[in-house]
Amino acid sequence: MSSETMNFSIPPSLQQFLTSLDSFIETQILPLQHKNDNIRFFDHRREHARTDWDAGGLPHADWEALLAQARDLADTAGFYRTALPVQYGGRADASGRGTNLWMAVIREHLAAKGLGLFNDLQNEHSVVGNFPDVVMVMNYGNERQKEELIGGRLRGEDPQHAHRPRHHLPQPLDPHTSLLGPLHHGLPIANTFTHENRLRQAASSLGAATYCVRSSILYSNTRRPFGTPLSHNQAIQFPLVELHTQIEMLRLLIRKTALEMDAMPHAEVVLRGGG
């Protein structure tokens, strides 16, 4: 019994992926981020730079073009479609299973780097794309819907998506052919999306928290009131230790949950998740 062990390390293949991803970011994404003053979209000017004030506050065309360029680079390098089923160029199996652990680790890893062209939590842009909607359409859409919605999504053929948030209709006007799955089954269908995304959002939040704690430690080591670093004070040390402990606890919970989800079909995930 003494020879039995529990392995809390991420798989070697995933670690190699992260190493390759970091190299891609350093060699292709960060140079683009700093080219032609593109850094304006990420520094203190970012909200103004990203917004087209003459077009009702919509995202500026230059900002969206930069995001598209980064996505194209990531797609060409083989990173962007990682979470997709294999038939769409990803690493998941044909049913869309098997990438929850990978995405949890990847999203935490990217968010822990802070804000950049490689990952932006504000608008869900990332060089490793998040596609829970594809999983939903795969499981409940017919063949025509799969081609139109998934194919169009990956080809970028939905430029008017969510472009009229102020409009309100008292009843739906969509044709019956737009119905996804059985009528009156909207909640379990939607939960196919939400159960995938809840875990990934938690992982991103964990990465953001990690970034904040690391930044706080760096600041407390360099800030020297009266000649002594702030980090020497217990009033600084204890809260940071507590936060670090909570981060580690949450990391283990997220990855354990992701691993269990990868072992279940979507229907079971929805059922056990309360859908």
Automatic annotation (TrEMBL):
MF terms (GO), sorted A to Z: acyl-CoA dehydrogenase activity; flavin adenine dinucleotide binding
Cited Pfam families: Acyl-CoA_dh_1
Positions of the Acyl-CoA dehydrogenase/oxidase C-terminal domain: 185-267
Cofactor(s) annotated in UniProt: FAD
Record PANTHER family: ACYL-COA DEHYDROGENASE, ACYL-COA DEHYDROGENASE FAMILY PROTEIN
Domain of life: Eukaryota
GO biological process terms, semicolon-separated: butyrate catabolic process; fatty acid beta-oxidation using acyl-CoA dehydrogenase
Protein name from the UniProt record: Acyl-CoA dehydrogenase/oxidase C-terminal domain-containing protein
UniProt keyword Flavoprotein, yes or no: yes
Family under the similarity heading: Belongs to the acyl-CoA dehydrogenase family.
Keyword set includes Membrane: no
Keywords: FAD, Flavoprotein
Residue span of region Disordered: 156-175
